[in-house]
Every structure is written in structure tokens, then in C-alpha cells.
Amino acid sequence: MNIELIEKTYQEVAKSLGWAVDKRISLAVTNFYLTRNQSFPAAEHEETSKVIKKAESWFSPLQYHMHHIAAAYLTLEPEPAEKGLKILNEKQRKLNEAGFRKSSYTYLAALVMEEEQEAVQAKALYEAMRSRHKFLTSSEDVPYALLLGRQGGAVEERAATMNTYFKELREHGFYMGNELQWLSQVMTFRSAVYDPQVVGRVLAIKAFFQNEKVKIRGIQYPLLGFLAVAEADGKTLQKIVEDTRELEKTKLFKWYKDFALSTAVLYAMRDAVADQDLAHVAFSGSLEMLMQAQQAAMMASINTSISVSANNSY
């Protein structure tokens, strides 16, 4: 991970997006481009931003927290921004038709949707999840429901497995809440079938970080799941610890230390995808999709924290 490049690109992104844009959004956009081995295309990004602002109503989530995240996605799409935006809105409408209320999270899910039928699959899994955790399951779970629904397998079995993972981790000292639910969801990424080894890996990874004095807060729970299902080895985990410490020393992460670990994990996953031999990752599915899931999680956490801050300001 090139920390100097991250800092340099962040400065370019922050300057382009403007002072009014939350720094966490600028960081998310920075990571989005760099993990795709792209330098920040300021002119193209600004042009896509203008297209969104012109086409979307004032009430659209794409005018607010999701604006620059969507702009980054659309900028790297092969289609012109206008066409890409129409496709994105059509996917979002499919999610609405499937029964999801329009929100920042349906747009986030739409960004990673590949086929229209995924909306129906997502709704089926969402309802199965909700039947077990009525008060925890909300719009924030839609991106996960879409990505995991795409994986196939019996919906009820996957939801039941999530619930089992949730209960087991509670017994091991994990705090109850949305973040633990997200972790239990990620743990089913490889298989809808319950696997006690996945629980063991999550606990071992958490213990490793704690032994290295890297704090694991609730918002970082899903990261443990990503690393567990990717079967990250000790070398990878040690590199993440070292990168996290280096990031925490920078001015950029001074006020957002929670995102240092998230960023270190993100780049570790990128490197795993780039490693054609996959020497240190035993993962039978698509690591590209796993990266999509992690970025969705990061963006969802940013969106949630910004929304809470905005609500508290009124």
C-alpha cells in the first residue's frame, strides 16, 4: 500500500470535490479509484457530477451523500455518464418494484447490481433476515442482501446460518447491533451452509488484532468477516496491522482512525485480487465481488454516520 499516493490522491479529490463535501466521502472516492488502479480523473469525475446534478431531482439521494460515490462508479463505466445514470436509475427502480423503499442504500445496491432478477433475490433474502431480526434489519442491509442473494443457495438456510453465527458471536463477547448483523451476513459469503470454521477464523482474527493493540470497534466487525471468508493468513494480517499503524500516523487519518483499519483491509483485498497465484488466499468464489461487498460496507458506514450527524444537527 502506497500511503504517499493515497495522501496525494486524497488531496486532489478533496480539492476537486470542494470543502463542503465530508472528508470521509473524499476518502471513499480516493480508495475507489486507487483500488481499481486508476489515478483520479478530476475532469471526468466533475463532468459526471454535473450530469447527475442536472438530471436528478433535489430529493434524490444522488444529490447528497451518494453523489460522488455514484459519480466515481459512473465515471469508470464504459457507457457515457448519461446512459450510465439511466441504467443506475432503472436498477434502483427494480429494487423499488421488488419491495424496497427508495433510499441511499437502494442506490448503493443498484451500483453493484449485475442482473435485474437480483432485486427479487435480494428481497427474498431480506425478508428471511427480517423474520429473525425484525428490529435490526433495515434499509442498511439492502446492499448485503443483494450481494448475498446473488450467491445462490437456499434463502432460508442462509438466513438461518446468519442467525446462528450472530448468536455464537454474541456468546464470544461481540456487541449486539447492526454491525454484528452485517458481520454474520458476510460470514455466509462463501456458503449458505453453516461452517463452524468460519466462526473460528473470525475469533482468531479478532484476537490477532487485539494482541497487536489494534482496536476493533463495532463499525469494523464486517472487516473480520471479509478476512475470514477470504482465509487471510498471518502474513496478510500482519501487513494490515503495519499499514493501519502507518495510516494512523498521517494527518489524513488523525480524526478518522476508525477508517485506517478499513482502508488497510481494502488494499489488502485489492492485492489479493491482483495476485494471480492467490498464494495467501484460499477463496473459491469471486474476490472481485468480495471487494465490492467491502466497499459497499465502507460506503454504507460512511453514509450511516453522516446521516446520524445530519439528524443530530437539527
What keyword list fits this structure?
314 residues
Detail the topology: elements first, then pairings.
Elements: H1 3-17, H2 23-34, H3 42-55, H4 67-76, H5 81-97, H6 104-112, H7 118-130, H8 142-149, H9 155-171, H10 178-186, H11 196-211, H12 221-229, H13 234-248, H14 258-274, H15 287-312
Helix pairs in contact: 1-2, 2-4, 2-15, 3-4, 5-6, 5-7, 6-8, 6-15, 7-8, 7-9, 9-10, 10-12, 11-12, 13-14, 14-15
Explain what the structure shows.
The chain has 314 residues and is mainly alpha-helical. It has one domain. 66% of the residues lie in helices and 0% in strands. It is globular and about 50 Å long. The longest helix has 26 residues. Helix 2 runs antiparallel to helix 15 and helix 11 packs across helix 12. Pfam families: DUF4003. This is DUF4003 family protein.
Helix content: 55-70%
Query: Which sequence of SSEs, written as H and E, runs from N to C?
Result: HHHHHHHHHHHHHHH
Structural class: mainly alpha
Determine the N-to-C terminus distance: 39 Å
Unreliable residue runs: 278-285, 310-314
What is the 3D form?
globular
CA-based gyration radius: 19 Å
**Topology, number of strands:** 0
Q: How many alpha or pi helices?
A: 15
Number of domains: 1
Average pLDDT taken over every residue: 88
Q: Major beta sheet, specifics?
A: none
Could you tell me the strand content as a percent range? under 5%
Pfam families: DUF4003
Protein name: DUF4003 family protein
